[in-house]
TrEMBL record:
Ranges annotated as spanning the membrane: none
Native species: Inhella proteolytica
Gene3D superfamilies: Zn peptidases
Annotated segments matching region Disordered: 179-198
Alphabetical UniProt keywords: Hydrolase, Metal-binding, Zinc
GO terms of molecular function: hydrolase activity, acting on ester bonds; metal ion binding
Keyword Metal-binding: yes
Domain Succinylglutamate desuccinylase/Aspartoacylase catalytic stretches: 83-183
Reported cofactor(s): Zn(2+)
Designated name of the protein: M14 family metallocarboxypeptidase
Highest taxon of source: Bacteria
Amino acid sequence: MHPTTPYPIGTPGRPWGAAERAAWLARQTVQRSYADEVLAPLQAQGPAGAECVQYGELDYTALGAGRYPLMAVRSRDWRAGRPTVLVTGGVHGYETSGVQGALLWLRRDFERYAKDVNVLMLPAISPWAYETINRWNPLALDPNRLFRPDSPALEARLAWACVAAQAPQVDLHVDLHETTDSDNSEFGPARAARDGKASEWHEVPDGFYLVADSARPEPDFQRALIEAVARVTPIAAADPQGCLIGTPVQQPGVIHYDMGPLGLCGGMTAARLHTTTEVYPDSPRTTPAQCNEAQAVTVSRAIDYLLGA
């Protein structure tokens, strides 16, 4: 067991109430601009065949935060006979390459696939968390444990509604994430304090890995993605117990979660092919550009696999 420092908010063993949540929110500060880093690239001249649509708004002004338009990108020439691809990023706003990797794929690779698939992309599902480099929303809720139609996390609820309206039939879903050192230094201890539980610590895997849905693991699909990303960034090795973040490795670089019951974004559709990426941006073996590239490569290789290429 790795030692952990008690979180500075709350009483150990007692779940947070309104006062503790307010104290947590007061500690959060804006560190980057959603408008500049996400909205501006989306609203600039995009690839031919793509259109940007607003699917909702987050209004956190009553909490002293901002108002955020939620944007999706979809194929302008949407055809019923084509397979449909869903790409989601920024469910956890602090996971930077999930957002920037999606935008990289959009501007560089979208046109290559536009004639073969319908694409719906939600590149930055949690914009307040993107600005504050956070895992939670301002209510101290983790959207990626609350993906359902009636979610108390508005980020998850609006994303779910968007996908249901825009792409009710999805063939491939790629959900872009990161695992960072701050999972152990900040977000794990905060979650334990919020829930009145003991903090758990797992070694952060040094490299890229995938999380498959245990209900539809598609091992050949996951293997194809790992092989493609291995050309871009290192793949995480299992720990001495044969695990990654405490979960048994099913094949090199791949673990399984039961996505639906856990309320994860990856369980929001019935797509036969699904994967959740996990990039490690704090590794001395990689760079931010490589992390973004790993996300983009995953999306492209996943579509190639879908198309039988």
